[in-house]
Amino acid sequence: MLKLERVTKVYKVGTFGGKELTAVRDVSFELQPGEVVSLIGESGSGKTTVGKMILRLTPITGGAITFDGVDVSRLKRGRVKGYYRQVQGVFQDPFSSYNPIFKADRVFSMLRGAYFRQLSSAEWERKLHASIEAVSLDPAQVLHKYPHQLSGGQLQRLLIARALLLDIKYLVADEIISMLDASTRIDVLNLLGDLKARGLGVLFITHDLSLGHYISDRTMILRKGVVVELGPTASVFGNPQHRYTKLLLDSVPQLHTKWNGDGVLESYAVADDEAGVNGGSPALVEVEPGHFFAAEES
Amino acid sequence: MSVKVDNLRVYYRTLRGDVQAVDGVSFAVADGEIMGLAGESGCGKSTLGKSLIRMDSRMRRVDGSVRLDDAELPIDDTRAMNKHRFKDVSIVPQYAMSALTPTRKVGKIIQELLESRGVRFAMIRPELERRLSLVGLSHDVLGMYPIELSGGMKQRTVMVLSTLLNPALLIADEITSALDVSSQKAVAETLVEFRDRGYVKSMIVITHDLAILYQVADTILVMYAGKLAEKAPAEVIIDSPLHPYTQLLISSLPEVGVTYEEKRLTGIPGRPPPLLNPPTGCRFRDRCPFAFDKCVDEPPFVEVEPNHSVACWKVF
To answer: B72 to chain A nearest CA, in Å?
Structure first.
């Protein structure tokens, strides 16, 4: 189990780091194997920072992240490798995740150098092909190609295949489909669903509510670094409690229902609304089993 | 008839040959109409939008014409287009954050732009302030530097600025893509409001997001690989599309309310053909589940029902 307890991240900004910016404040949740949790937030909400802290790409300022009871941020060198064997990430832009000078399959040979030195070439080949086939790609079509010869969907699936080679238990998927075209993004999303059925825990970070609703078991809404609502996807979307969640749901463009006819000024007022954002982190109140929201001070 | 594009072909010159990004496109946008232009990346929708206002040096018009209110637009003559830009044809670019000069105050930028068109700033200032307050901005922004405004505020400022001279045609290229959901709604509603108030006569809204177009557009034009696939009123495109590409595209979009467990959506296998030496015949043929032997010929773009045109042999 991957568990976050009151995790906080403060960035030093400004000249000589003279100012502080709290990107994430007191975020707590847990991720079980075989479930997809969506972390939904707008730009600047700190959702990517949460993913980066789990992957140890940025140190945490406060709180603790534990993996099966072990504090992740205190791992020593050898143990870090063991952690990455089980927790991996895939990021937004498939084109900048690869070095364009080398062939795309270099990500696999680098992995082999770090983790699978003892495997014979034939064994490695078999393992590699199995994992590429697991993400519904044809090894003959994607191996020995340069990144520009492959589509964004293929590149993104290769990165997932790379993660799968490591018998991972958890995957941090940070906006992995927002750069993909509409006709191919759903296939990558379905792949996450298949992996979930095989026992993988996925933290699905997104700004798109409909994608989050499609794939996730639980949903967490993040605003300015604070969790405002957390619960089973059906109850967060079906019975939203926090004003901000309702606002987001009202603003999502739907394919078969038109927006309510608010005037332009009201919509801008809603978009600019900063109410309820203050330094504190309001306590979470449980409304239904497992469904929490941050009660606002009125 | 406000805007009429006839058999427009715009190619990119490259060392390896011409990239046929817009290949024989014809359509018309009526006065007061918002036309949505949808398609995936690389389908030529942005090239089409750009060629209506400013072609860059790699772009070349091979064929076709653009008429605006019965006068031909000299789209491939950058100098001659100058007198139409901003007054007759205007654009709201995608990255409004980088559209404003960082070293000038917003008011100064607007003043210089107006005076370059021979319009006195003082004359138009009251109208400018009225329009700024319409989008929820105080006129203090005129005295600020762009860095003092948030991304959404810059986007609004640029929208007001672009439409200040009441252009006949406004091109909005992916203007909601970089915004958060709540600002997206407000910006999209502003487009409709500007049309309703007559600030802009006709509008072409370019986006890959069909859901946004359903909210704001009167008609939707779907492009695929440089060619027109389907054009119809927004409701018809979303609820009863005829072209297989439009059908598959819409059925692959998740909505709030659809879940993986209950209804598994599928994507479209394959990828669009390269536009450098594109294949002959229907360009969607390789990915189309309904393709048959007739598809090796190129389907014409034909009106099959009133206001509903489509390019597919299966439909005729």
So the answer is: 35
